[in-house]
């Protein structure tokens, strides 16, 4: 797993180098969202409000909201509406209620047309008020509703009788008459206070008079998720999944990016790094066919996770790097030799760097008899799936040239084994990287155009992995 930190610059690089793929995936997601909306018919939601007068606690309001969506209320509403093929159990999934501020129960109904949604919410609100009134005893045919009124009348009659008894008592100022009138007055006051408490606590007078606050407003738009919302959500979902997929692939990548890791995988020493001017197709693999054309169309034929090439010096400065590599290679070998320059198949950057190395070695600045010249280099491309290196003939040794972050440790180990099977020792490694070239200036010696000599895999022999 790569330990690179996922930063905004990484996401920006995905947008810049994979914008075609991201755009196509977003369009596909939008089509999927649109197709999903066709499977679900449009829905409309209307809401009716019911006012509950009096003092209510929060738990009581929640209880009333549950009553509003109970099977009794919804079944009565379904029977009143009389919609064909729509039962109370089906309507129960389309009706919801919640307690709002100000002792208000908001009842919402969802249907396939605005008119039906309006009728459904109005009917459920009316049936809820009627059912709540019946529970509170506000039914004129109920015997329980006559109980509190009869008690009030009896209290009034008793109060009048107490007044008559007080007036008929001995008007004298005896102790017995005063005590009698006092007891009668206390009894009347107690009856009045009890009647007042009964009136305040009576649910019929304080909490049963629920009011429907007008008819529900006819909805003017579809209930979410609408067709537009599903289309946009599909496009956004596919877009995000594509970005997350790129980040996950980069995080799980096992490609070697640093020079010490590459040198350890090949079991040799690093001779140096060289620069290759970036071109429009520097990272693009060659080849045709429908798959290659589709990859080029989607923009996935190039690596996106490579860092932006840094700006390099002029052509003369880049040639100095190649000459230094050739010089280190000459100093490392005991005698002038012919070497194979092994390049992984499909690594265009390494192929161009190897061609430049071969040209520099061929253009050795006229070595004298006392100084040994550069080794003669022949470039061969080796498949990483089944690596085959030509047998040892005139060449005795291999120089591996590759770009950073292009191959895994297993692939490089396979190339090293193929070199060993063919009798070639890996004498060194060169890592190539792309740079942004500045405008070229006239150099002291223009580079020769290298002629790459590629190994024909069909006739080559050697070890394989």
TrEMBL record:
Residue ranges occupied by any Polysaccharide chain length determinant N-terminal domain in the UniProt entry: 4-63
Pfam annotation, one family: Wzz
Phylogenetic classification of the source organism: Bacteria, Bacillati, Actinomycetota, Actinomycetes, Kitasatosporales
Subcellular location: Cell membrane
InterPro entries: Bact_polysacc_biosynth/exp, LPS_length_determ_N
Family membership noted in the UniProt record: Belongs to the CpsC/CapA family.
TM helices/strands, residue ranges: 21-40, 230-249
Region (Disordered): 439-465
Membrane topology per record: Multi-pass membrane protein
Keywords: Cell membrane, Membrane, Transmembrane, Transmembrane helix
GO cellular component labels: plasma membrane
Protein name (Swiss-Prot/TrEMBL): Membrane-bound polysaccharide biosynthesis protein
Broad class of the protein's primary localization: membrane
Keyword Transmembrane helix: yes
PANTHER family listed in its UniProt record: CAPSULAR EXOPOLYSACCHARIDE FAMILY, TYROSINE-PROTEIN KINASE
């Amino acid at each position: 797993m790569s330990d690179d930190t996922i930063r905004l610059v990484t996401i920006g690089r995905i947008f810049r180098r994979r914008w075609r793929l991201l755009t196509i995936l977003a369009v596909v997601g939008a089509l999927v969202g649109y197709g999903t909306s066709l499977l679900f018919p449009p829905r409309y939601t209307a809401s009716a409000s019911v006012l509950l007068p009096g003092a209510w606690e929060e738990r009581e309001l929640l209880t009333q909201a549950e009553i509003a969506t109970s099977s009794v209320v919804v079944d009565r509403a379904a029977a009143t509406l009389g919609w064909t093929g729509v039962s109370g159990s089906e309507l129960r999934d389309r009706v919801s209620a919640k307690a709002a501020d100000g002792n208000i129960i908001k009842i919402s109904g969802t249907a396939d047309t605005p008119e039906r949604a309006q009728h459904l919410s109005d009917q459920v609100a009316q049936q809820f008020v009627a059912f709540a009134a019946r529970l509170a005893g506000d039914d004129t045919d109920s015997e329980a509703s006559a109980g509190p009124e009869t008690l009030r009348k009896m209290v009034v009659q008793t109060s009048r009788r107490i007044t008559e008894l007080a007036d008929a008592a001995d008007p004298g100022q005896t102790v017995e008459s005063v005590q009698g009138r006092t007891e009668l007055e206390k009894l009347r006051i107690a009856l009045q206070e009890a009647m007042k408490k009964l009136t305040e606590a009576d649910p019929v007078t304080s909490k049963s008079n629920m009011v429907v606050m007008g008819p529900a407003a006819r909805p003017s738009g579809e209930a979410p998720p609408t067709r537009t919302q599903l289309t946009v959500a599909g496009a956004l979902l596919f877009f995000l999944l594509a970005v997350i997929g790129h980040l996950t692939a980069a995080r799980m990548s096992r490609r070697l990016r640093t020079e010490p890791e590459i040198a350890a995988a090949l079991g040799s020493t690093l001779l140096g790094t060289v620069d290759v001017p970036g071109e429009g197709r520097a990272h693009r693999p060659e080849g045709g066919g429908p798959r290659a054309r589709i990859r080029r169309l989607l923009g996935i034929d190039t690596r996106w996770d490579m860092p932006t090439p840094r700006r390099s010096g002029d052509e003369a400065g880049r040639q100095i790097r190649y000459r230094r590599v050739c010089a280190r290679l000459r100093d490392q070998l005991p005698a002038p030799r012919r070497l194979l320059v092994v390049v992984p198949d499909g690594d265009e950057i390494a192929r161009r760097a190897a061609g430049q190395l071969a040209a520099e070695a061929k253009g050795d600045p006229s070595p004298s008899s006392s100084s040994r010249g550069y080794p003669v280099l022949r470039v061969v491309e080796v498949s990483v799936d089944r690596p085959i290196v030509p047998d040892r003939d005139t060449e005795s040794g291999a120089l591996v040239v590759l770009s950073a972050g292009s191959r895994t440790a297993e692939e490089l180990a396979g190339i090293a084994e193929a070199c060993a099977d063919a009798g070639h020792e890996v004498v060194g490694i060169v890592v190539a990287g792309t740079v942004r070239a500045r405008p070229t200036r006239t150099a002291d010696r223009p580079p020769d155009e290298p002629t790459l000599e590629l190994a024909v895999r069909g006739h080559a022999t050697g070890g394989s992995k």
